[in-house]
Specification:
By secondary structure, the chain is an all-beta fold. It has one helix and 37 strands. The strands form eleven sheets. The protein has a four-stranded mixed beta sheet, with no helix packed on it.
């Protein structure tokens, strides 16, 4: 019987898993696994205007607030301005929402299978580029498949596809969708705007992207220096311009760009009239993204012309325009400039979308919020406006658990530390789950891990993992990063070639699976700290990646079939 230990590491969108072999435990079952979809948006909250949308821990979408144009629930009858839909399920099987503001609010929903649907006001074909029907109220119509991420601005929608390409549609008056065209609205959802994209976030009329290489770019409206802080050109249409490097997370404000860098520092640029970029600066436009605004930052969300920031310890602070106390509920001071004042603690997630209010999810699934409550879009049973009490629960989205299964066997919910015995129907394996290593702020993320005995194994010579296949000649070896620089020898090589980790887009937000890869496609593998590209055909000579050095790789390194991480 093998043992598998499950840890938390920030693998995808600051949520995810890392499968770790405990010391002294080596064997086939430790190697034979694949990890499947990480639903990082489960138990989350979204907004695009005077309404609140949630994805519950079970993947259900519900919402409340302004629904006169069907942006919350297209099936509600009648459509009404004050809609309490906390008890109504709009759609299920959803892993991400995005909300825009067009004529109050529209909603896009990314399903678990990668299909994108949407509903609500469609004046610029911002919901459905295939139709001029407005509002669009068919939440079953698949607008696009193979989608990995979605974001909405005021009236435009942008998506990152599974292959890392960026597409979009909707209002294009400032080139915020397709900067190479003056056509508006832009309705061609097949046009590739950019490749190599990891994430996207939309402001009022600008778009910012996080590239796979950690650089950040932006385009569209630039009258407030929100797209290119070093240029007065408006609109800005150069998608190749790099504003920031070494970034890991992005969020657009109405006229701002916010970036969390690899060292957990926050930088930003754009309109600063209400101190929404640098609260200590009198400049109307903040144009220096090299200045650290805050440190120890986990997440950030633009709230109209303000911003709320989640620290790694679960505390939330904010600064910027404080109309309706949307940033700091305990004071009417506007703008709010004290970026150290803690608003609420124990927070897991921040609201995402083109939002007017601050809304958060606590680690126990409790939704809290503050700001404008004109349409009872925060507190459904209160006419108080603004709503300024973050201590009151607005809704409970629940706390999803991790799940484990093996070889197609039964799935088990994982909610606490301990050992879980899994079966594939004939054999068993023990999964030792170190769930306490998940920070409290991460426990609301749904993680699925599946174990399979049919997958041969993997190793990564320069990273955390060093696995040899369990059935093709060689001893399974675990090696932590940095403990050894000795190259893995032939004994670790399976009968049909080397094992390697493909670099680039993580398909569909997944960690894994490791699958066979045809040799007629160019891929990469990691040999120590050096990266080489394989030839297009078996038997050719691999080529060192530009900027990398190392001894020549001979044909003996070219197997009859590579393996990689899809």
């Amino acid at each position: 019987m093998g043992i598998l230990k499950v840890h938390n590491e920030d693998v995808v969108n600051n949520t995810g898993i890392f499968l770790k072999n405990p010391a002294g435990e080596a064997g086939r079952y430790l190697l034979d696994y694949k990890s499947s979809s990480i639903e990082s948006s489960a138990a989350s909250v979204f907004s695009g205007g005077p309404a609140t949308m949630v994805i519950t821990s079970t993947g259900e979408v519900r919402g409340w607030g302004f629904n006169l144009t069907g942006g919350v629930n297209p099936n509600a009858s009648p459509l009404q301005a004050y809609y309490n839909g906390q008890g109504d399920v709009v759609i299920t099987g959803v892993k991400q929402l995005a909300c825009g503001r067009a004529t109050s609010q529209y909603t896009m929903a990314l399903l678990n299978n990668g299909d994108l649907v949407g509903w609500g006001p469609n004046p610029y074909r911002n919901v459905n580029p295939d139709s001029a029907t407005n509002p669009w109220l068919d939440e079953t119509y698949v607008i696009l498949s193979g989608v990995a991420k979605v974001s909405c601005g005021e009236s435009h929608t942008m998506v990152v596809m599974n292959d890392g390409t960026l597409r979009g549609w909707g209002y294009n008056g400032n080139g915020q969708v397709n900067p190479t065209s003056a056509t508006t609205p832009w309705t061609d959802k097949t046009t590739v705007i950019l490749s190599g994209v990891a994430d996207v976030s939309c402001g009022t009329e600008h778009t910012m992207v996080l590239m796979e290489d950690g650089t950040v770019r932006a385009w569209g409206r630039n009258s407030e220096k929100q797209s290119n802080p070093l240029s007065a050109k408006n609109p800005w249409t150069d998608t190749s311009n790099i504003v920031v490097s070494n970034a890991k997370k992005i969020a657009a404000g109405a006229y701002q760009c916010y970036v969390i860098k690899d060292d957990d520092t926050l930088v930003d640029w754009g309109r600063n009239l209400f101190k929404s970029c640098n609260p200590q600066s009198a400049l109307g436009e903040w144009v220096d993204p090299t200045i650290t605004i805050l440190s120890d930052v986990k997440d950030v969300s633009g709230v109209q012309q303000g911003v709320i920031v989640l620290h790694n310890n679960g505390d939330v602070v904010g600064f910027g325009a404080n109309f309706s106390r949307a940033i700091y509920p305990y004071s009417s001071t506007n703008p709010w400039t004290d970026k150290t004042a803690v608003i609420i603690s124990g927070v897991s997630k921040l609201v995402k979308g083109y939002t007017s209010n601050s809304i958060v999810v606590l680690s126990d699934g409790s939704v809290r919020g503050w700001g404008d409550n004109s349409y009872k879009n925060l507190k459904v049973d209160s006419s108080a406006n603004p709503w300024i009490d973050p201590s009151v629960e607005l809704y409970d989205v629940g706390v999803p658990s991790a799940t484990l299964s093996w070889g197609g066997g039964a799935t088990m919910d994982i909610t606490t530390d301990g050992e879980y015995v899994l079966s594939d129907g004939s054999n068993t394996i023990t999964a030792e789950v170190d769930y306490s290593e998940l920070a409290a702020s991460d426990k609301s993320d749904l993680v699925r891990v599946e174990l399979y005995s049919a997958v041969k194994g993997q190793y990564n010579e320069g990273d955390h993992m060093a696995y040899a296949p369990g059935d093709s000649g060689g001893t399974a070896v675990w090696r932590e990063a940095g403990t050894s620089s000795t190259p893995i020898t032939d004994i670790h090589r399976p009968g049909c070639g080397y094992w390697f980790k493909e670099t680039g887009t993580v398909y569909g937000g997944e960690v894994g699976p490791w699958v066979p890869w045809n040799v007629d496609q160019k891929v990469e593998f990691n040999e120590g700290s050096r990266i080489v590209k394989s030839p297009a055909v078996s038997g050719g000579t691999p080529i060192w990646e530009v900027g990398k050095t190392g001894p020549a790789i001979t044909d003996t390194h070219v197997p009859c079939g590579y393996w990689n991480k899809k």
